[in-house]
């Protein structure tokens, strides 16, 4: 793992929101194929760090690279295209569209990317089947359990074959058993596709699934550890 080149690279990154400094001079490499956990107390800047890595936020100072692309110099439209084509996302509460079925939620990123509907639906069905949700494809998010909804979110994140999956507190709304099942499923499927995984969590049980962890405090990286 240590010889893998960085797929993401931050240098001297600062990000402010009004008078508050969320990130203060962050340097970080994320290696291709690794599972990285970002930990820290509430308000430490860990979610902001993930959003800068993912191109959701542009840093106010410093540079952010994805492979050879200087993401910090891209405009919002180009960053959005990069996220659509290269990245997948899993959020704490799934962020599924409530009026769409599980199948349509999973197919949506492919449709936005311009894939024919028949192809998008076929791929979405395949992912739902892999996740044991074939019988729930026609249900809306409100008809699913928390664990089922997060598995739909995982399918949506992976359906585009992303190079990187970003997960922001993916088990934060689940009980411990569902959390373990969701994490095991996410990492098994992501590693099967060769994706890099970046997870923000406050839960050491979730971080234990990672190869490496970084700890963020007061907008700075205060520690780095090898877990696997």
Give the count of helical stretches.
7
Q: Fraction of residues in helices?
A: 25-40%
Oligomer: single chain
Q: What is the overall silhouette?
A: globular
Q: What is the CATH top level name of the domain at 6-96 and 162-226? A: Alpha Beta
- Unreliable stretches (pLDDT < 50, length at least 5) are none
Class per helix and strand makeup: alpha/beta
Mean pLDDT: 91
Under the CATH scheme, which architecture of the domain at 6-96 and 162-226 would be assigned?
3-Layer(aba) Sandwich
Q: What is the percentage of strand-forming residues?
A: 25-35%
Radius of gyration from the alpha-carbon trace, in angstroms: 17 Å
- SSE succession: EEEHEEHEHHHEHEHEE
The strand line-up of the biggest sheet is 6-7-8-3-9-10
Distance between the termini: 10 Å
Q: In CATH, what is the homologous superfamily of the domain at 6-96 and 162-226?
A: P-loop containing nucleotide triphosphate hydrolases
CATH fold field value of the domain at 6-96 and 162-226: Rossmann fold
What does this structure look like?
One of its GO terms (molecular function) is ATP binding. This is ABC transporter ATP-binding protein. Pfam families: ABC_tran (PF00005). Keywords: ATP-binding, Nucleotide-binding, Transport. InterPro entries: AAA+_ATPase, ABC_transporter-like_ATP-bd, ABC_transporter-like_CS, ABC_transpr_LolD-like, MacB-like_ATP-bd, P-loop_NTPase. The chain is built from 7 helices and 10 strands. The protein starts with 5 loop residues before the first strand and ends with a strand. The chain has a domain of 156 residues: P-loop containing nucleotide triphosphate hydrolases (Rossmann fold), CATH 3.40.50.300. With 228 residues, the protein is an alpha/beta fold. The radius of gyration is 17 Å and the shape is globular. Strands 6-7-8-3-9-10 form a 6-stranded mixed β-sheet, sandwiched between helices.
């Amino acid at each position: 793992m240590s010889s893998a080149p960085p797929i993401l690279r931050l240098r001297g990154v600062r990000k402010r929101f009004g008078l508050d400094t969320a990130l203060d001079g962050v340097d970080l490499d994320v290696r291709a194929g690794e599972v990285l956990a970002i930990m820290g107390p509430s308000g430490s800047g860990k979610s902001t760090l993930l959003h800068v890595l993912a191109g959701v936020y542009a840093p106010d100072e410093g540079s952010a690279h994805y492979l050879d692309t200087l993401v910090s110099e891209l405009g919002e439209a180009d960053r959005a295209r990069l996220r659509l084509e290269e990245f997948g996302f899993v959020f704490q509460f799934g962020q599924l569209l409530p009026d769409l079925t599980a199948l349509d939620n999973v197919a949506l990123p492919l449709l936005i990317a311009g894939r024919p509907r028949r192809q998008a639906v076929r791929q979405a069905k395949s992912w739902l089947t892999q996740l044991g949700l074939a019988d729930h494809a026609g249900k809306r998010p409100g008809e699913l359990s928390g664990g089922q909804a997060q598995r739909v979110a995982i399918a949506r994140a992976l359906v585009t074959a992303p190079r990187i999956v970003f997960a922001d507190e993916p088990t934060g709304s689940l009980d411990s058993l569902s959390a373990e099942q969701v994490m095991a499923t996410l990492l098994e499927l992501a590693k099967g596709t060769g994706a890099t995984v970046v997870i923000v969590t406050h839960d050491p049980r979730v971080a234990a699934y990672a190869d490496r962890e970084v700890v963020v405090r007061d907008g700075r990286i205060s520690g780095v550890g090898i877990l696997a």
